[in-house]
């Protein structure tokens, strides 16, 4: 284990960081577990106490930005024609539906 000095900037708990990121604590801890967000451990090896800085949260936000529309998708895609359908269906009244017949037990 390497002992490094703590950063000078303010550190936030998991609850505070989740509120700043606009996600739940459970989701934040899933990101920690999956190594999608960095953290500072101020606890012990067995009982970790996670802390997050503004820089860490900013990196996480920048890394996980999603585009509204993908770059490869054309905005001039043809729309489906509105008109006659190629499928044919008929309407059956509810009373016309047959009830399933009960299975008869075979005698031995």
Task: Give the overall form.
Answer: elongated
Give me the Rg, rounded. 29 Å
Helix share of residues? 25-40%
Please report the distance between the alpha carbons of the first and last residues.
77 Å
Structural class: alpha+beta
Strand order of the largest sheet: 1-3-2
What do you see in this structure?
With 108 residues, this protein is of the alpha+beta class. The protein is built from 3 helices and 3 strands, in the order βααββα. It has helices at 14-21, 25-33, 54-63, and strands spanning 11-12, 40-41, 50-53. A 3-stranded antiparallel β-sheet has the order 1-3-2. Strand 2 (40-41) and strand 3 (50-53) form a beta hairpin. It is elongated, with a radius of gyration of 29 Å. The model has no long low-confidence stretch (mean pLDDT 81).
Characteristics:
108 residues, alpha+beta, three-stranded antiparallel β-sheet, 3 helices, elongated
Quick rundown:
The protein is an alpha+beta fold. It has helices spanning 14-21, 25-33, 54-63; strands at 11-12, 40-41, 50-53.
């Amino acid at each position: 284990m390497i002992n490094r000095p703590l950063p000078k900037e303010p550190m936030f708990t998991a609850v505070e960081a989740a509120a700043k990121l606009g996600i739940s604590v459970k989701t934040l801890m899933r990101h920690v577990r999956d190594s999608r967000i960095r953290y500072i451990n101020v606890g012990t090896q067995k009982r970790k106490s996670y802390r997050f800085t503004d820089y860490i949260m900013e990196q996480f936000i920048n890394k996980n930005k999603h585009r509204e529309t993908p770059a490869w998708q054309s905005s001039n895609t043809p729309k489906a024609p509105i008109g006659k359908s190629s499928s044919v269906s008929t309407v059956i009244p509810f009373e016309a539906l047959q009830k399933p017949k009960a299975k008869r037990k075979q005698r031995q």
